[in-house]
Design goal:
Blueprint: H1 49-55, H2 61-70, H3 74-107, H4 111-140, H5 148-159
Helix pairs in contact: 1-3, 1-4, 2-3, 3-4, 3-5
Length: 160
């Protein structure tokens, strides 16, 4: 059934006027609710700001770099820069610890170092996982969560 183009009430098929407001009706009355989709602006990835902020963290520093280059909104750029700094730094630490652990295995020097570096690597992995989830949740809720040291570096990257 068609709707009134003025008030949105249901009108009978072929009715000349709306019974509710009295507005004249065309033969094919337009539907009452037409959804509005805002146009995508330049520098906008076509996503809501909170979703883009969440996506900055999905693949760590990789998606951070992608969103840092394609999205110009300050909220998204901050989260992208923070993702690059936090997860890039944690990746570098993880690779370095893996190298030290491998030297302990192949060198056969001290097995205690192998255990120590393995434990530190596990704790680093837990920190990585907790920060990853926390940053995604905070960005989705449109909160500006700042990781202590990395946020200052991210601020300097965003201002450039």
């Amino acid at each position: 059934m068609p709707h009134c183009s003025k008030c949105g009430e249901l009108v009978a098929d072929g009715a000349g006027f709306c019974r509710s407001c009295g507005a004249p009706q065309a033969a094919g009355a337009a539907p009452a609710s037409v959804s509005y989709v805002p146009p995508v602006q330049a520098g906008d990835a076509g996503l809501a700001e909170n979703v883009a902020g969440l996506l900055c963290y999905v693949l760590g520093w990789v998606t951070g770099l992608v969103f840092f280059l394609i999205d110009k909104r300050p909220f998204v750029r901050f989260h992208a820069a923070q993702a690059m700094v936090v997860f890039g730094g944690l990746t570098i630490l993880s690779v370095a610890l893996s190298m030290f652990t491998a030297m302990g295995i192949f060198g056969g020097v001290f097995h205690i170092f192998f255990l120590l570096f393995g434990l530190i690597h596990f704790v680093l992995w837990l920190v990585f996982l907790i920060l990853w989830v926390l940053c995604m949740v905070k960005a989705y809720h449109h909160e500006l969560f700042r990781v202590p040291i990395a946020a200052n570096i991210a601020d300097s990257l965003v201002k450039q």
